[in-house]
Specification:
mainly alpha
């Protein structure tokens, strides 16, 4: 499958321009763009890409874009997708840094804007969780692994590293699935 680089760039620019709240919030946007609209990946392929992106160091949205770009068009595709997903954030950050100097005297205004955006970001995150969960929890065994992993993370409160929970989930999957 040959994906025109411009189409790949436009897709990840759209995701990046809409992805407020970080990688988790962006997952549902990426899935919609890559699976639903473009049909470049199946749901199963997308879940594998996100799992791999989550397991590697770096921001989730960047890793996901890089892996999808590579999957679709090799190294040039990964460069296009990564550049496209990073460019809007870098430009916006630069503009905000310049504007922040002017808004420092109006700190309350900035705080109110940030507080107003938080519920929308939460909604994006919940959508990603629901979308990913529908495809990740497919039977009683996967539901049990997910519930136990969540319980460990909630109870431990920073005592157990999330990577260890992922590894334990993988090992449990070897025996339960």
């Amino acid at each position: 499958m040959i994906i025109p680089y411009l189409e790949l760039a436009i897709s990840f620019l759209r995701v990046s321009l809409s992805a407020y709240g970080g990688g988790i919030a962006a997952i549902s946007l990426i899935r919609h763009e890559v699976v639903v609209i473009r049909g470049w990946l199946s749901v199963e392929e997308f879940i594998r890409v996100v799992t791999l992106a989550e397991m590697t160091p770096g921001p989730l949205i960047v890793n996901t874009a890089t892996f999808i770009g590579f999957r679709l068009a090799g190294v040039p595709g990964s460069l296009v997708a990564t550049t496209a997903v990073l460019s809007p954030a870098l430009l916006l950050l630069t503009a905000l840094m310049l504007a922040a100097r002017r808004l420092e005297s109006r700190g309350q205004f900035r705080v109110r804007i940030q507080d107003a955006v938080k519920p929308a970001v939460l909604a994006l995150m919940l959508m990603a969780i629901i979308s990913f969960g529908r495809n990740a929890v497919t039977n009683l065994s996967t539901a049990l692994i997910a519930a136990l992993a969540l319980a460990v993370l909630l109870v431990s409160r920073r005592k157990v590293h999330p990577v260890l929970v992922v590894i334990a989930g993988g090992i449990a999957g070897l025996f339960l699935l």
